[in-house]
Structure formats: structure tokens, C-alpha cells
Amino acid sequence: MVPELARQAVIIKSRWNTSTMTGNYEMGYAVGVLTKVSGVLYPADFSSPAQLKEKMLELLENYEPGNEHESNTIQMLKYYEPDETMDEQFFEMINMGLSEKTPWKR
Predict the structure, then answer these.
(1) Residue among 40, 101, 102 nearest 77 (CA)
(2) Out of 24, 46, 48, 81, which could bridge 52 as a Cys pair, Cβ 3.0 to 4.6 Å?
């Protein structure tokens, strides 16, 4: 249930440029789905959520978002301050985003 709620939260929040992420599970899904839609290589060598965020933003630096969902999600990622939570569900959310078949659809 929690993974689906975090997924839905990112999808809904991606509609507006004033939205913010509220947890590492949302961040995990966002990293996964942004990796998928942008075509960048997933930065698998990280030791904390903060390091993953930093590496992902570096990879997306020259990426031109294809739509407002992508642009808004990148903006949310930039301003999100992750905590140290890196449990099984965090990685589940990343994988959920990486394997997303219909990004931005509820």
C-alpha cells in the first residue's frame, strides 16, 4: 500500500510546479521514473539518499525535460532534503520507477 501511495503522490504532484516531495519513498520513485524517461544511466553507486539525489541531478544537468511532469519532478527533486532512510521500500520505489510502463498515469 505505501509504495502505491508514494507513486501516486509523485504523479499527482508532478502536475504543478509548486509541489514538494515529502519523503524518501517519493524521492526513490522520482529517481527511478526520471532515469527511465530521460535515458540516463541509473547511478547505482551511492551510500545515502542525499548522495543519490546529488548524482541524479548531475546526470540530469543537460537533460531537456519532455513535458511539465518531468520538469516539475526534477524541480521537486532539487529542493527535496532527504533523510537517511534507505530501507527495502526505498529501493522498491526506485525499482518501481525504473520499471514504470506508463509514466505520469494514475
Answers:
(1) 40
(2) 46
